[in-house]
Structure formats: C-alpha cells, structure tokens
Amino acid sequence: MLQLDVALTPRLLGPARVPLVVVLVDVLRATSTATTLFALGACGVEVAGSLRQARARAGDGRVVCAERWSGRPAPGSGLPISPSRLVGSAVAGRAVVLCTTNGTRALRRVAPRASHVLLGCLLNLSAAATDAVVLASRLGATLSVVCAGRHLGAIPCLDDTYAAGAIIARAEVAAARLGQAVACTDAAKLARLAFDAVASPYAALAASATSQVLRRAHSEADIAFCARMDVTDLVPVLVGRGAEARCPVVLL
Hints:
CATH class: Alpha Beta
Low-confidence stretches: none
Largest sheet: 5 strands, parallel
CATH architecture: Alpha-Beta Complex
Number of domains: 1
Number of strands: 10
C-alpha cells in the first residue's frame, strides 16, 4: 500500500518515516523556475542558503538567479527569477545558483528528512508524479508532496495546495498503472479537493495571494506561464555533490 501525503507547509511535514520520497512544490515560482532552467539547457542548479552565498558563487561558468522579498530580482542576479523571462542563450550549458524567498528555503528544510527529493510543479506535473510513485513503490516509501507555502513556510497558500492536489491526482493514476493500491491522508485529500474544485490551473494560481506579489513585481506573465500543465518531462532531483542525474540539484 503506497501512502500519499501532503504537507501544506514544510513545517507540517509529518513524523519522519524512512524511506520518505518528497516532491517539493513552489509553483510560483522556485520549482517552476528550476524546471524551466533545465528545459532551457542548464547543466545543474545549486541552491544557496542566502543571497550573499549565491553572489559568492557567481563566476566560473555559474550564473545567479535570485530574488528579494518583494519578488523582484536581487542585486547581483544575472538571470531573471521570472521563468517566463528566461531564455536559452543565457542558460544553456551553465550551472545556475538559485535563491528564492520560500522555495529554496523549503528545500533546505525538508532535505535532511527525506530519502529522495524531487522538484515538482505544473510544468512537469505527470513526470514528477510518475517518477515519485515509481521511486516510492520501489523503496516501499511514503510519498509526501510538500508545499513551500508563504512567509518562510509559516502559512499555506492556494497555488501550492492546488499544485499538490494535481500531483496527488496524477500519482493515483501512476500507481494504478503499476497495480499499486494507495492510501491518502486527510491532507492529501484536502489538496485533491482544492484541485478538483477550481475550474483551471490559471484560475487557481491567479486567485492566490502569491499572484498578488508577482503582480506588484511586474511579473504577472509568470502566472499563466506556471499554470501550464505537462510541458516537459524533466524533473529536477536533489543529489549529493558529485552525483549524477539528468537534472541535478545540489545544496550549497
């Protein structure tokens, strides 16, 4: 029996169960940005713990992609944090140092508790859900979708909860194809209800408080960009230093 869970914020991730496969979601925008970076040809993503650390890593082929609390690019950022503004000519073949307000902090928070961490969003929805189900089934693990949330993971948000529900829905389909029975926690059911209740991905993301931050930062185009489903099969995966993966993400 494959257990599917959702943590509406990183702080709500349940008691540690080993092994634990996590799909981290920050649909507006960190996990969408990371997925887009790989889709544009980036060779790796390094997750910084602070803007100072991110800027210190610039050079030697690396480029910084970082934001301030306002959602605007941070000083020293060589790339727009906005995924809709990224272009392949600035990214292809390069390692990108990523630092965001909520998403990268959430990744650093959950990483020590998980056996494996994948980065999911609507852009790679089916691929992330399927990869996570296959991995969790092979390991006999719990699969938990963790939402980055807002205010340093202190409160849930509609956009991430909707995306988590979408991943749960796809995970149920993937599990059925494997002949794997699933059991959803109440939190997973809640996220799934949020997904089922909204007419479209754009409607869910546009109604969220996070979207208001993007509008104030003149990044409204990111809402429609990140609301697209299944535009890539690339799934960023957290790995240790020196490890290989198709879309490697490392913590600095």
